[in-house]
Amino acid sequence: MVRVAHTSSTSPQTSSSEPVPLTHHAILGLVAPFSERGHQIDLAASDRAQRRLCFKPIQHPDLPSAGESLTETLTLDNPEPEQFRLRRLLSDDAGLSSTLEIEGSDPGELLEQIEAIEVGRQVVAVEGIHIARDYRLQSIAASEQQPAHWRLQLEKAETRVEGVRLRLNAKTGRKMPADVELRAEHDQRLRVPADLFAVLGWEWRPMRALGKRWRGSVRIAAAEPERTPDVEAKLAQAVRHLANTLRSDPGAFHARWQAARWRVAFQRAIPLLIGLSLLGTAPLIQLFSLEDISLVRMFIFHAPPLLMIGIFAMRELPVIEIPPMPRRLIGHEWIIDDSKGRLGQASMRGAEAG
Question: How far apart are CA 292 and CA 297, in angstroms?
Answer without folding.
Answer: 7
